[in-house]
């Protein structure tokens, strides 16, 4: 099923939740000199013009990144300020005109010793990705674009030639089978690279299929699993659609939970009076 195109939702509250986490994780990892391989299993595009037909149709970015962008001069949280500064570097003017996709968040700070592999199965989205630059100028050789199944590609890519590896898994979850497919792929991946840092985004939907997925992870034998969920409204009051966004991080860098928790608490008031952040260690040591 290849109907999903993220351009319709670019910059929404779930993107903000996800990409603040992605930025923070990669920031921690890039502080060490040893090389790292980043893998993006469901890449989408490198960036999204907010005036494009798809993005302008729903304008979900107005309740997501735009609210943070409009208040950036009043923010006092270091992580949010750094994150917005990164977005500003992508703009051609002082206005918010483009929102970066996950390949850019993983690739825009790559060093010579690092590499990035991005998978995209949708032919149209892969074409867009192939036409964009998501790594620093002169670092094109460290980027590999693959038109194919990202979950299978992740497992095949491990172990990597670099001493460290970090993967972002961000499916559309249009099919209910994707929840189990994600679990199976991550368990296989962790068997091949127990040290891997893995980030998984998942939607909070009324059907509640993410609960079984999280329970499976909790009993999988994988250690060090932390999760963060942003709820726009109380559970159960939304009859249709996504009421929240979830991030699961395996082997999170030390201090990530506190750093993200502080940033998300600063952001919550912009989402509305009923918004809340809940986080916990699904599995500790």
TrEMBL record:
GO terms for biological process: rRNA base methylation. Signal peptide: none annotated. Monomer. The active site is at 170 (proton acceptor). It comes from Halomonas binhaiensis. Pfam families: RsmJ. One of its GO terms (molecular function) is RNA binding. The record marks 4 as: Interaction with substrate rRNA. S-adenosyl-L-methionine binds at residues 19, 42, 102, 120, 149-150, 170. This is Ribosomal RNA large subunit methyltransferase J. InterPro entries: RlmJ, SAM-dependent_MTases_sf. One of its GO terms (cellular component) is cytosol. It catalyses: adenosine(2030) in 23S rRNA + S-adenosyl-L-methionine = N(6)-methyladenosine(2030) in 23S rRNA + S-adenosyl-L-homocysteine + H(+). Its EC number is 2.1.1.266. Specifically methylates the adenine in position 2030 of 23S rRNA.
């Amino acid at each position: 099923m290849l109907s999903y195109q993220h351009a319709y939702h670019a910059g929404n509250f779930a993107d903000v939740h996800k990409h603040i986490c992605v930025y923070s994780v990669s920031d921690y990892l890039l502080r060490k000199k040893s090389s790292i391989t980043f893998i993006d299993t469901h890449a989408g595009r490198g960036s999204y013009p907010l005036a494009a037909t798809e993005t302008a149709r729903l304008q979900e970015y107005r309740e997501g990144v735009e609210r943070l962008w409009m208040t950036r001069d009043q923010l006092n949280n270091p992580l949010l300020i750094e994150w917005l500064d990164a977005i500003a570097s992508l703009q051609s003017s002082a206005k918010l005109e483009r929102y970066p996709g996950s390949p850019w968040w993983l690739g825009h700070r790559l060093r010579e010793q690092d590499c990035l592999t991005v998978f995209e199965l949708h032919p149209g989205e892969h074409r867009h990705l192939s036409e964009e630059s998501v790594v620093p100028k002169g670092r094109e050789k460290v980027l590999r674009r693959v038109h194919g199944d990202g979950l299978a590609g992740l497992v095949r890519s491990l172990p990597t030639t670099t001493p460290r590896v970090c993967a972002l898994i961000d499916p559309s979850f249009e099919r209910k089978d994707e929840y189990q497919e994600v679990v199976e792929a991550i368990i296989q991946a962790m068997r091949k690279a127990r040290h891997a840092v893995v980030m998984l985004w998942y939607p909070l939907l009324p059907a509640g299929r993410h609960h079984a997925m999280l329970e499976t992870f909790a009993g999988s034998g994988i250690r060090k699993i932390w999760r963060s969920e942003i709820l726009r409204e109380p559970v159960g009051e939304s009859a249709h659609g996504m009421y929240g966004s979830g991030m699961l991080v395996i082997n999170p860098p030390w201090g990530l939970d506190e750093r993200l928790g502080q940033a998300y608490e600063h952001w919550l008031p912009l989402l509305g009076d009923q918004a809340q952040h809940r986080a916990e260690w699904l599995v500790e040591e």
